[in-house]
Amino acid sequence: MAMKRYSKKEPLVFFWVVVPYIFFMNLIIFGSCIFNSASVFFSIFLSSLIYFFIVYSIFGIVAVIIQKKFPADGDLFKRIYLMLPVFYLMNAGAISGAFYLYEHTRIVKCVPQFNMLWWTVLYACMMSTVITFINEGIANWEKWKNSLAENEKLTNAYQRSRLLGLKGQINPHFLFNCFNTLSGLIHEDEEGAEKFLDEMTKVHRYLLRGDDEFLVPIIDEIKFTQSYLYLAKARFGNAIKTSVELGKEVLHKFIPPLSMQVILENIIYSNALSKKEPLTIHIEYDPENGLIITHTLHEKIIVKNLDIDEGLDNLLKKYKLLNTRAVNILDKKEERIIILPLFDKREFAL
Predict the structure, then answer these.
(1) Is residue 271 within 8 Å of residue 331, measured between CB atoms?
(2) Phi, psi of 293 (to 5 degrees)
(3) Potential cystine with 230: which of 6, 199, 266, 331 (Cβ 3.0-4.6 Å)?
């Protein structure tokens, strides 16, 4: 398994720093002895490279552990204040270990200058400070670039969801069915026709308000939902059974506009409807999770409206754009549960 890095450019930083770092480190430790011959120079350089590569691999592991503990952008100074003292202590141990290794193993032909021990430690600490700030800068630069790319993707997804919302506002199939049902009621039930026309007006008035706001009061969406379900029940009769159970505590919540339109259309148009096995839709509120929409599943072989699933997918992306908990969809054998997180405040920063 690959070792986790502090930033993607960490190996590149080490590569560009290691050559001058090892050179000056050896110069401080051994003095001019490293220039006695080419073989002496390269043997010292190679042994130092192997030793400090192992040492600074451990430094990297420590840095990643601290980064995991304080991952937020606002924790920058916490990470640095914790890393640097730890690295200074580790440098003292690593340099002392290098002096001991060179003195007792004689793997190189030069003798370390013990009077330069603390100067070497000071140099190592300075370089650790520089490398730490470089890695932090690169890591934050990478986060910033990734954030820009992610925001662009999500903004495009949100614009697409607005387009789908607009298509839903002028859906000729839905409009035709409404007028067809209304026409039948006019001849059979004038009072029912008047009520149907009133609810139909409420639905289209809400749809025509647009999708310009990021959030709307949940009460507005629920009123729309009740009118929409009234139209559906008038059309399909006993093939649909609905229930809405919401307490007063939900009234101060907010929700992305037209969310219920997307969900209800997905439920009604993707399920087979029959009086023998009616489609049951239940809407309730849970303070911990949000708005819960539960409906039975009745497999439909042919789905005429191909935008139904696409609309639901874009609703999921819209929630991701709003930087909140994701929409949770739980599929069971005979029912589906859709959980929509709600918002406490209308004002928020995108």
Answers:
(1) no
(2) -110, 115
(3) 199
- Longest CA–CA separation in the chain, Å: 110
Q: What is the β-pairing status of strands 290-296 and 335-340?
A: antiparallel
* pLDDT tens track for 273-307: 888 889 999 999 988 888 999 999 987 765 555 45
Residue 228: closest CA among 171, 272, 185? 171
Rg (Cα) of the chain, in Å, rounded?
Answer: 33
Counting Cα atoms < 13 Å in the Cβ hemisphere of 323 gives 7
Give the full edge-to-edge strand order of the sheet including 290-296.
240-245, 279-286, 290-296, 335-340, 328-331
CATH hierarchy code of domain 211-340: 3.30.565.10
Which pLDDT score is estimated for 349? 43
Q: For residues 42-49, give the mean pLDDT.
A: 85
Residue 157: which of 319, 312, 309, 317 has the closest Cα? Answer: 317
Give the residues across from 339 on adjacent strands: 292, 328
Taking each helix axis from N to C end, the angle separating 259-269 and 117-169, rounded to the nearest 10 degrees, works out to 60
From CA 110, how far away is CA 148, in angstroms rounded? 53
Collect contacts of 268-273 with beta carbons under 8 A, ≥24 apart.
268/232, 268/240, 269/303, 269/304, 269/305, 269/308, 270/300, 270/303, 270/308, 270/309, 271/295, 271/296, 271/297, 271/298, 271/299, 271/300, 272/298, 272/299, 272/300, 272/301, 273/236, 273/239, 273/240, 273/298
Structure tokens at 322: 């709003």
How far apart (Å, rounded) are the C-alpha atoms in residues 274 and 324? Answer: 37
pLDDT digits 0-9 by tens, 68-103: 888 776 777 788 888 888 889 988 888 888 888 888
Q: Token pair 């009520």 is at which residue?
A: 195
- Domain boundary assignment for the chain: 10-147, 211-340
* Strand partners for 330: 337
Quick one: 31 exposed, middle or buried, by C-beta within 10 A (0-12, 13-18, 19+)?
A: middle
C-alpha 72/C-alpha 79 separation (Å) is 10
